[in-house]
Amino acid sequence: MYNPRVPSKPRRSPKPHERQRDPDHTRKLILDAAAAEFSAHGYVGARIRAIAARAGVNQQLISYYFDGKEGLYQAMSQQWQQRQRELVPPGTPLPEQLRRYALEVLHNPEGPRLLAWSGLQYTGPDDDPDRASRTRQLADSVDELRAVQESGRLPAEVDPACLLVMLMAAAMATTTLPQVIEGVCGTDPKSAGFVEHFADQVAVLARLIGLEPA
Amino acid sequence: MYNPRVPSKPRRSPKPHERQRDPDHTRKLILDAAAAEFSAHGYVGARIRAIAARAGVNQQLISYYFDGKEGLYQAMSQQWQQRQRELVPPGTPLPEQLRRYALEVLHNPEGPRLLAWSGLQYTGPDDDPDRASRTRQLADSVDELRAVQESGRLPAEVDPACLLVMLMAAAMATTTLPQVIEGVCGTDPKSAGFVEHFADQVAVLARLIGLEPA
DNA sequence: AACCGTGTCAAACATTTGCTTGATAAAACC
DNA sequence: GGTTTTATCAAGCAAATGTTTGACACGGTT
Description:
- 2 copies of one chain form a homodimer.
- By secondary structure, the first copy, chain A, is mainly α.
- Chain A has 11 helices and no strands.
- The first copy, chain A, has helices at 23-45, 48-55, 60-66, 68-87, 94-107, 110-121, 131-150, 160-171, 173-176, 178-185, 192-208.
- In chain A, helix 1 packs antiparallel against helix 2 and helix 7 (131-150) crosses helix 8 (160-171).
- Chains A and B meet through helix 1, helix 6, helix 7, helix 8 and helix 9 of A and helix 1, helix 6, helix 7, helix 8 and helix 9 of B.
- Chain A binds a DNA duplex through helix 3.
């Protein structure tokens, strides 16, 4: 969690964690608190006061560092986008990739939730600054699907891009449709046991439509 | 909560739509406006003033009829739940059912959106009054999948309940993941053309995993 | 015609929200 | 060591939000 960031110029200062003022650490505290709050309640539902409280810092520092709620949201999104990018090692076969994505909800549910919130708030291509980045990242997976299709394991009538979207949505179901799961499966959709079971089922589905791992 | 108040005595009154005061009509105006507003912005994002404006009635009437925002939300949910129930003719094969569900977004996008919002707000089985109703409705589909499985067209390792959830989530993707679609497919995820295409792809997926229509 | 219950409205209210201000002290600089 | 910069805080503000109040007029009853 705590990252004692070496300052840009070599400063002969006391050990950072003994400092009474540590901007980088504070920024990080705020960003983490923001991720928790925004992912829990969405943009409109998130409260600046709550974020400050979670971070254990003065509320005003949010304006100081990020220029208000909007700025904080954007900075936080960007940080998460990057973390997400680092998370997926390139070259992982799709079924496994999907299974991991479904499992992700256990260790940091913030990612899928933020994506889901932003989907419902989405108004058009203009207000999505991460579009290019996300596109780039998913393009590989689409290519992989297209390759499978050309190898004949996937019927020609399938649109690879749509298929990928459908599989992503399916893998996110524990996040987007917990009520339905609760109703249909009768179990707590957030419990580790179920999430693992569901992740396996996602992989089964992927295999079922012909995306065998090598 | 919602009580459609048939006038206790049969009144010999002028045509309702010429009346200057028409409680039933007003209720309906408010409920429709609420569905539009809540589905557009979610519960926290919805503004009582906006709902009143949409309905063309005084803001106070919302408290008068529904006892505030919370009450209105609940009444509106219940109404929509019922409408949804009437919409699905029993006995429709699953692939077609899914295709229609995916298409639904064209004619009344409110339904899927409300479901998605409520999923993200979901905290536990307690705060979901529609659970029983939804469960009953989906149980049939699970049974159908189980039957397909027993007929051997679906591998034993598949959990029918999970599969149904995944397929629902997939069918809702134009609602839940428009940003991703915009990025991956490069088209407007709300355009009629794409929605139809996507609905077909959902049906293709269903067929792909062995759920052939009779 | 007088009366009353109820549907409707305009205005105001208490609370919450995100943000700004002004002061203060810790660090960095020379 | 003295000065400047900057990280932090407490208090307060204007706008917005959901709700309450009080008035009033329509529609039916007597």
